[in-house]
Amino acid sequence: MPPLTTEELSLLRKHDTPTVCNVIELFDIRPRISGYMDERIQACFPEMPPMVGYAATATFRASHPAQGDVYASLEDQVASFKENPGPAVVVFQDLDDPMVAATFGEIMCTTYKSFGAVGLITSGAGRDLDQVRAIDFPVFTNGTICSHGYSHTLAIQIPVHVGGITINPGDLLHGDCNGVTTIPKDIAGRIARACDPFMEAEAVILNYLNDGAVTRQGLADARAKCTAMIAALKEQVQNTP
């Protein structure tokens, strides 16, 4: 399948993650309770705009000393970004249970960003949050821990389990202050183009509610119009290749 165009990536970045989830539902290709990370994965910087990119995966451990240079795999990690059809999102599975140390800090995030990554997700913890915020690099974690312990990366570009779902190398991800979802790559371009029309449908209700005096009938009429617009959009996206 062709990679997303620059325009399609921009369209996805324009919209929040709940809107993307809503549009995915129009296609009826997966259960509505699957495909997105659970409440354990939280945005460290909820004020940052949506993050969109392709997963560059890795596993991590910090509970036991490792042999040699614990950052030896960093060069291989950033080299693997070229395997993706677009910007990378680094995704770590912390194998320690419970987690004992931070997966990342300032140096790792600065390295990733310098090689084109647009964000990082870990099932573990982070640190150096002030410094990572300063470089405008969105990160999503299961908490914050001040030390890196015996941190080392075990493997890269393998399936990982984060936030209750499996992430494969190259999976398309969208995340913001509301959480992180996967986007099915075979319909990603259609999802990107359907977000604006979906927002226009929802705006019918919001504009009515914000316009002044409201009535029960007026709300019913606005909801009916919104529902009809979404139904028409659903038919369109399901029947347009």
Describe the structure.
- The protein starts with 5 loop residues before the first helix and ends with a helix.
- Strand 2 (51-61), helix 3 (74-80) and strand 3 (88-94) form a beta-alpha-beta unit.
- Helix 1 (6-14) runs parallel beside helix 6 and helix 2 (17-26) crosses helix 6.
- It has two domains: 30-183, 3-Layer(bba) Sandwich (Glucose Oxidase, domain 1), CATH 3.50.30.40; 189-239.
- The protein is α/β, with parallel strands linked by helices and 241 residues long.
- It is built from seven helices and twelve strands.
- The model has no long low-confidence stretch (mean pLDDT 95).
- Strands 1, 2, 3, 5, 7, 8, 11 and 12 form an eight-stranded mixed sheet that branches. It has a two-stranded parallel ribbon with strand order 4-6. Strands 9-10 form a two-stranded antiparallel ribbon.
Q: CATH topology of the largest domain, what is it called?
A: Glucose Oxidase, domain 1
Largest sheet report: 8 strands, mixed
Give the second-level CATH assignment, the architecture of the largest domain: 3-Layer(bba) Sandwich
Q: What would you report as the Rg, rounded to the nearest angstrom?
A: 20 Å
The shape, in one word, is: elongated
CATH class category of the largest domain: Alpha Beta
Can you give the mean pLDDT?
A: 95
Number of domains: 2
- β-strand percent reads 15-25%
How widely separated are the two ends? 12 Å
Order of helices and strands: HHEEHEEHEEHEEEEEEHH
| The CATH homologous superfamily of the largest domain | Ribonuclease E inhibitor RraA/RraA-like
- Helix/strand-derived category reads alpha/beta
